[in-house]
Amino acid sequence: MATNARIAPSILSADFSILGDEVRRAEAGGADIIHVDVMDGHFVPNLTIGPLVVDSLRPVTGLELDVHLMIEKPWEYIPEFAKAGADSITIHIETCPEPEDVIQQIHDLGKRAGITLCPGTPLETIKKVAAMVERVLIMSVEPGFGGQSFMPDQLEKARTLVAWRQQDGHHYDIQIDGGIKAHNARECAEAGVEVFVAGSAVFDADDYQTSIAELRASALGDR
Questions:
Q1: Residue 2: its pLDDT value, please?
Q2: How far apart are CA 21 and CA 27, in angstroms?
Q3: 70 within 8 A of 115, measured Cβ to Cβ
Q4: pLDDT digits (tens, 9 = 90+) for 136-169
């Protein structure tokens, strides 16, 4: 069981007509991180936002802006997201033939780097860069759309990541994204997850403080 649980509401499920207010409400409700899903309509079959939205959110919150790039050729856009105010930038192993170079690019811009992979991609594909990153993101749905059902078989990746970290002295945190609710946060935490991306579980709730507290309590084994 995790001894800490950071909740990262995903703005993909927020009301974009009042996005700044939504982020303020999430922060006031106890969020630890704001998760920003960026999709290009090519790598995944959906199109979302760009650096301008990150730039508009930067003055709104002091929380970490965690940008997840579900896009082709992420190295072409990383400088703009860094300039816009992203604190951490996560790339997909599937989009980076030379992931070491892209991770170094993120670090050279003064940002925390993350690596992620689609559910069907073997975890071994990221092992060569695990020592370089500050975050590994496990996708527990197919990337592209919010509101999908959680895939519990992906938790085996979290258990393996815990073992790698212990064996090799890595320093990444373990994040999960996709179908995360209060009823499954505990099993994620038991597998080693520490950062919980939640979209509809937070932004579809009437009371963000309650929904975030329920997620955290479940992850910590308090309910």
A1: 55
A2: 10
A3: no
A4: 999 999 987 767 789 999 999 999 999 999 999 9
Phi then psi dihedrals of residue 115, to 5 deg: -130, 145
Per-residue pLDDT, averaged over 30-37, amounts to 98
**CB-based contact 20:54 (threshold 8 Å):** no
Beta bridge mates, 173: 135
If you search the block for the tokens 């991306």, which residue do you land on?
197
Q: What is the rounded distance in angstroms from the CA atom of residue 68 to the CA atom of residue 182?
A: 22
What CA–CA distance (Å, rounded) separates 116 from 157? Answer: 11
8 Å CB contact between 48 and 80? no
Active site residues: 37, 177
Interatomic CA distance for residues 161 and 115, integer angstroms: 12
Domains along the chain?
Answer: 6-219 (3.20.20.70)
Helices (H), the chain: 19-28, 51-57, 78-84, 99-108, 155-168, 182-191, 200-203, 208-219
For 26, phi and psi rounded to 5 degrees? -65, -40
Q: Look up residue 74 and give its DSSP letter.
A: G
